[in-house]
Amino acid sequence: MTDPSIISAPSTPFQAVFLDRDGVINEEDGIIQSKEQLRLIPNAGAAIASLNEAGLPVIIITNQPVVARGWCNESELDAIHNHLRELLRPFGASLDAIYYCPHHENANDLTYRMVCECRKPRPGLLKIAAQHFHLDLTRCVFIGDRTVDIQAARSAGTAAWLVRTGFGGQDKKCDATPDSVFDDLQECVTFILKSCPPVPKTPQSRKP
Hints:
Radius of gyration: 16 Å
Number of domains: 1
Largest sheet: 6 strands, parallel
Number of strands: 6
CATH class: Alpha Beta
CATH architecture: 3-Layer(aba) Sandwich
Strand order of the largest sheet: 3-2-1-4-5-6
Number of helices: 6
Structural class: alpha/beta
Strand content: 5-15%
Shape: globular
């Protein structure tokens, strides 16, 4: 259990919660190329359901170079994400949106070969989501298991929280320090709901 005394709480309530996918919601299983590889991390479904009940948008921000490498096309990736939603449904949990980057600078498929602004650790996807949902990124949190997530949060101006599930920050891709470290998504959500009452729902806080 994380010592709450070392957790950095925001000065204002959160408007939305951004989540990395692999290692935060579902178990790390190498490169996910099929829905059969998806297995929820224990308590992740219940944690997301709690955020839903509180009226907080839950938005996935994920790199998916599997598309760029030609191991999975975007339609197949959509099927994987639809299956993830199906796995969450029995818990009463849902996702407000999934934003993914299909690009990679060394892509096998030239259509996706580029240095883009949407691939973490760059903050492009967070900025796009903020526009769609009318969010103030300084009043949001990004929860991830890798340093690329933490760096993306830093670049976007969101709170940056690391979980010990998945890579637990051991990917060593970026020199980025999280604001807080939690055992898992459930512990993050418990802290959010106890310490940071969500902003009341308004039409502007949802995707049009």
